[in-house]
Amino acid sequence: MDTILIIDDEFAVLCSFAAFFEDCGFRVLKATNGCDGLDIFRTHRPDIVFTDLRMPGLDGFALLSTVKQESPETPVVVISGIGVIADAIKAVKMGAFDFVSKPVRELPELEIIAKKALETRELRSEVAALRDRILDGRLLHQDAFSAIITKDAGMTRIFQYIEAIAPSSQPILISGQTGTGKELIAGAIHKASDRKGQFVALNLGGLDDQMFSDTLFGHLKGAFTGADRPREGMIVQATNGTLFLDEIGELTETSQVRLLRLLQEQEYFPLGSDTPRKSSARIIAATNRELSAMVKEGRFRQDLYYRLCTHHVQIPPLASRKGDIPFLLENFVADAAAAMDKPNPSIPPELYRYLNTYDFPGNVRELKSMAYDAVARHKHGPLPKDNFISAMGAEQGSELINPDETIALIPASSDRMPTLKEAEEALICKALQLADGNQGVAARYLGITRQGLNKILNRKKTS
């Protein structure tokens, strides 16, 4: 719960502001003069300060100056009387976030100002935290990422970004192909945030509008046929915690509108209720779809997309971080052996070369499935590569052979193209070099069978 400190020597103004912000869900601290307000600020460190400017003793200007010196990141909103706009402008130049004039005719404007101030504070804190992480390269929450097996530099940069945005209450969108570990990333964000509530995950695939609202927001007794008792939704389970919504691209337009209200107002309506309830859950959404393309096609609301993209984490596919394959495979094989009560088999180095030729369309999840299946079939000795090769099929692996690099290996004068024979010899030479002389691996690089490569090599020997 965000805390607001209100300082004003007019008791009626103080009480009306306090009552309004309490109704909005804020924790409110009050002071009737600048000296008491400064003491309360130093003791409780509120998230935002509203202060009158003209007060006896310590006035608002002096208080603003002291607060900005002791806590530059704390937003201060000044309250000025009608006819003294010059004072408000002076306060803004001194570092005040904004100002309001008394009497305030539209109290909801106060909530808008407060929310903008808090969002600005969060963003500034995130930028500072990200700068610190990049400069020293350290992670403060190593344990939060312990479930994610990687030594990839790109993944480390993602972890640094996560640590910077984790304390924020703003939504996060996680994008990535199927099997890249989006829920693991969401769990890491929750752990790094130090939020006191639970991590609650909900897969939105296949949920119609009523199922979405009932599952997420709950219902009152009699809300629909069969609702013989009230039920709390998963949003309540995630109070002061994190709500992870997977497959966000599957939401219908009606459900998108309901989720947008939750993100914008932190409010929701249980089915059958006309009274909004407040939520303190942090929302993390995930998708394997291109939401920006869905927005252009009119299948996903633009305002919801931009709300979710306040922070965006893009997880790379396994094909772009193949240096992690040995660490992942060793871990999966050990876990599978322990789960099946089998000895942990050794992994032949040759297997890694075969795996490097494969693009892994199912990403980390596919590699895990291969490892578990291979251990289940394993009887003795090193882990055989045949099960993996069978699972990979005849598909060619990643584009490790760069055509430009290959052509550069072909001897040719500047006035002619290399012949097919020269190109074939260069490709085979490059493939065997990448495969450390292993013909089976080289054949996979070339997209042909081992027998096919043997025929070409034998033909060359006899020609």
Explain briefly what this protein structure is.
The chain is α/β, with parallel strands linked by helices. It has helices at 11-23, 34-44, 60-70, 85-93, 108-136, 153-165, 182-193, 209-217, 234-237, 253-265, 291-296, 302-308, 325-339, 349-355, 363-377, 386-392, 403-409, 420-434, 439-446, 450-462, and strands at 3-7, 27-31, 48-52, 76-81, 98-102, 172-175, 199-203, 218-219, 231-232, 242-246, 267-268, 277-278, 282-287, 311-314.
Write a concise keyword list for the protein shown above.
463 residues; alpha/beta; Rossmann fold; Helicase, Ruva Protein, domain 3; 4 domains; five-stranded parallel β-sheet; 20 helices; 14 strands
Question: Could you walk me through the main structural features you see in this protein, from its secondary elements to its overall organization?
Answer:
This protein has helices spanning about 10-25, 35-45, 60-70, 85-95, 110-135, 155-165, 180-195, 210-215, 235, 255-265, 290-295, 300-310, 325-340, 350-355, 365-375, 385-390, 405-410, 420-435, 440-445, 450-460, and strands at about 5, 25-30, 50, 75-80, 100, 170-175, 200-205, 220, 230, 240-245, 265-270, 275-280, 280-285, 310-315. The chain has about 475 residues and is an alpha/beta fold. It folds into four domains: about 5-120, 3-Layer(aba) Sandwich (Rossmann fold), CATH 3.40.50.2300; about 135-315, Rossmann fold, CATH 3.40.50; about 320-390, Helicase, Ruva Protein, domain 3 (Orthogonal Bundle); about 405-460, Orthogonal Bundle (Arc Repressor Mutant, subunit A). Strands 2-1-3-4-5 form a five-stranded parallel sheet, with helices on both faces. The chain has a five-stranded parallel sheet with strand order 7-10-13-6-14. It has a two-stranded antiparallel sheet with strand order 8-9. The longest helix is centred in the N-terminal third of the chain and has 29 residues, at about 110-135.
